[in-house]
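[Q] Does anyone have a clean structure-token version of this?
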Amino acid sequence: MGRRSESSEEYLEALFKLSRTPEGVTVGRLAVALGVAPSSVSQMTARLSAAGLVERRSDGGLLLTEEGRREGASLVRRHRLSERFLVDVLALPWDKVHDEACRMEHALSPEVEARLAETLGNPTVCPHGYAIPDENGEVAEDGARPLLDLQAGESGIVSCVDEAQPELLRYLGSLGLLPEARVAVESVAPFGGPQLVRVGTSQYALGREVAARVFVKG
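[A] Here you go.
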């Protein structure tokens, strides 16, 4: 099998990521994730289905086949290894590597991917805290949940943060809300108000939209 088109690979990568969320994959969610029209998603998933990579459930949801899952995991692995290279070796800030890695992932051969992983020390997470699939496509689970779900008096360790919005990453970095940072919820304002959180010795009021994009464990 030759390499698939970049567009097909972008779909497989997004399908793999969404398949690991509690909500699963639908045409609508995939359209939002990729920033395309639902009609475009329907056309592409029909082609992926014909290629034996995607199945449509009776309720309209989408499932990756075993082959689709393997290819999706491989793409996510190349993307996150590329992000580690850009941050760890080229010293690019974490808010500037997502789009660069999107371009790199389509060009890496299996040999270069293996050499890159070895050179980087076989990292297990990307700079934003997301697990890097291993060579077999397996991904470690850490049970992370949105910071938004924590109640007053609860605390946890930042596991990962939404990687797709550079402005959000710069903001979180300025607060010290980085992977492995401890964060404690001191109070939650009523009627959809912000969370008051403590990071180190500092307190911050986080809006609900921001808190929903930070994931914690423990």
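[Q] Thanks! Anything notable?
[A] Residues 76 and 134 are 10 Å apart (CA to CA).
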